Amino acid sequence: GFKMGIVGLPNVGKSTLFNALTKTAAAQAANFPFCTIEPNVGEVGVPDARLDRLAAIAGSKQIIPTRMTFVDIAGLVKGASKGEGLGNQFLANIREVDAIAHVLRCFEDGDVTHVEGRVNPVEDAETIETELMLADLESIEKRRANLVRKLKGNDKEAQQQDRLLAAAQAVLENGQPARVVEVDAEDAKAWKMLQLLTTKPVLYVCNVGEAEAADGNEHSAKVAEMAASQGNSHVIISAQIEEEISQLEDDEAAMFLEEMGLEEAGLDRLIRAGYDLLHLETYFTVGPKEARAWTIRKGMLAPQAAGVIHGDFEKGFIRAETIAYDDFIACNGEQGAKEAGKMRAEGKTYEVKDGDVMHFLFNT
Ligand code: GDP
Question: In what order do the strands lie in the sheet with 290-297?
Answer without folding.
Answer: 62-64, 290-297, 280-286, 357-362, 317-323, 344-346
